[in-house]
């Protein structure tokens, strides 16, 4: 089905949004109402952490006509990488758009869209991933976990970036970082029988040197950490309550609205994405990681500050709601186990 | 502002397993169309022997057996057995009322997306042109085709005929047909649309419905009756206008409510007729909370459907 919009439909949508006193949107929502958000974690067995988010519909995977929903699954995967001073934080986001989500797109268009969304998701999460970085270090200055976030868009009926970030947040909430034990090269020191002068300060020797020497045997072969317990999932991230959330404000001056569906996105193409995180419950304490204005029209500089302020309010409430839901799920899971 | 839930599991009917027939179970060749419940196939299901029957759409032959290749209902015309899929695109039939969206303006024709297997085509010669009287289409008309319909426009039309390549030819040669304004579109599966006496429905809440056989439903503000408008009174300005009338909030709310009702019914696979939509609307108005956004929850939909089924 094509997603274009006729002029009269666009006119109907915009005049409804601008109607005062209380605007009614196509499905009866007010300007600031989100569709229902369905979230679950641990949906991919082989990932270190995974999450699924569905906006709208009834939270089921029924992608029928007339029951529009935006659905995304994100799987987080950890891979060991060497810490290289040149590279930034170890985060790679890749988004795959399924043809069933965009039946009107050709394959090259899908690829373009996928790379666009990958870049958008990467930018939205990059700065907040910096906060996680210390927790992902295995051996300081040597090795760390590289975080790969692989997202699949199952269906798209608007506001897909918010959906992706909610799913990514659920995946990060679910993420278990394997517990590792660092290995030092301890040598079995054969006490030299002949000469005391042969004794060297062993701590200053490097592992390779000693291995080559042969006279002194390292306890373990070359390798610098090991998993404490192969069968253990690992420990969750600390401060999960402060994982990022993204809100998209669709701008139709003088109003803005949240969670646009596809038709509304067509009629009102200008929107601003904002990613926030809230380290503490203190209302004054919030971090704005990223803003991005998308769309054909400009907005005056003076109106940005109020928008960010408004966005912070929405993001805080979404943050609280998601934390309550995800904590509740954790408790339920613990009760079952 | 934010309601966060757990995703619900997809529903499965428990009866499906019981109804599934094994391919090994041979039946009397003439006996395969029994009562309705038996007529729903699952892919790979044995239908009949290929010795006595011909296979049609939605079936295939394996080891002299006709098997269903889709989930659907069995249809039989003499010796031809076919399965009509439960979920498919719209297959046009001449005389059907459809709603389509212009995708392309081509030479002397518009390409129309009608959610069909084949594309729809609206010929320049099949539309009413300004001036009213039937006349030959001139070159000047051809040059200003975009002033009538342009890409993205929604229109209501009737299936006129089929071209040799299967394309659906439409026509809008009636004052009831033409460009759609003052409302919004809802799409449901074409399988849920029942053939009605009239597909132009005026609900008593001041909302008009145009129910396209292709599953597109236009929900709009009530338009005044055609007061015996003659062909001479035909105004291109009015018919091909892109401007909406002024619509008050009450009407918008009613339009949103009807839209949500159609979505709920479609989610529960209930065939749509004017009467069930009107019933559902009345039921919705009787509820304690008249907020339209309340209708988006799953529970509300369940309640509504139960109430409607009990009423029948």
TrEMBL record, chain A:
Family named by the database record: Belongs to the RNase PH family.
Keywords associated with the record: Cytoplasm, Exosome
Signal sequence annotation: none
Main location: cytoplasm
GO molecular function: mRNA 3'-UTR AU-rich region binding
A Pfam family this chain is assigned to: RNase_PH
InterPro entries, sorted: ExoRNase_PH_dom1, ExoRNase_PH_dom2_sf, Exosome_comp_Rrp42_subfam, PNPase/RNase_PH_dom_sf, Ribosomal_Su5_D2-typ_SF
Any single GO BP term: TRAMP-dependent tRNA surveillance pathway
Region (Disordered): 186-205
Localization of this protein: Cytoplasm; Nucleus, Nucleolus
Annotated source species: Tulasnella calospora MUT 4182
The Exoribonuclease phosphorolytic domain, residue ranges: 33-178
Protein name per its UniProtKB record: Ribosomal RNA-processing protein 42
Gene3D superfamilies: GHMP Kinase, N-terminal domain (3.30.230.70)
PANTHER family: EXOSOME COMPLEX COMPONENT RRP42 (PTHR11097:SF8), EXOSOME COMPLEX EXONUCLEASE RIBOSOMAL RNA PROCESSING PROTEIN (PTHR11097)
TrEMBL record, chain B:
Segments passing through the bilayer: none
Keyword terms of this UniProt record: Exosome, Nucleus, RNA-binding, rRNA processing
Source species, domain of life: Eukaryota
CDD domains: KH-I_Rrp4_eukar, S1_Rrp4
Locations listed in the record: Nucleus
Domain (S1 motif): residue spans on this chain: 93-173
Cross-referenced Pfam families: ECR1_N, KH_6, S1_RRP4
BP terms from Gene Ontology: CUT catabolic process; exonucleolytic trimming to generate mature 3'-end of 5.8S rRNA from tricistronic rRNA transcript (SSU-rRNA, 5.8S rRNA, LSU-rRNA); nuclear mRNA surveillance; nuclear polyadenylation-dependent rRNA catabolic process; poly(A)-dependent snoRNA 3'-end processing; TRAMP-dependent tRNA surveillance pathway; U4 snRNA 3'-end processing
The UniProt record lists the keyword Aminoacyl-tRNA synthetase: no
GO cellular component: cytoplasmic exosome (RNase complex); nuclear exosome (RNase complex)
InterPro entries the UniProt entry points to: Exosome_cplx_N_dom, Exosome_RNA_bind1/RRP40/RRP4, KH_dom_type_1, KH_dom_type_1_sf, NA-bd_OB-fold, S1_domain, S1_RRP4
Gene Ontology molecular-function annotations: RNA binding
Biased composition (Basic and acidic residues): 10-30
Span list, region Disordered: 1-35
Entries under PANTHER family matching the protein: EXOSOME COMPLEX COMPONENT RRP4 (PTHR21321:SF4), PNAS-3 RELATED (PTHR21321)
Family to which this protein belongs: Belongs to the RRP4 family.
Name assigned to this protein: S1 motif domain-containing protein
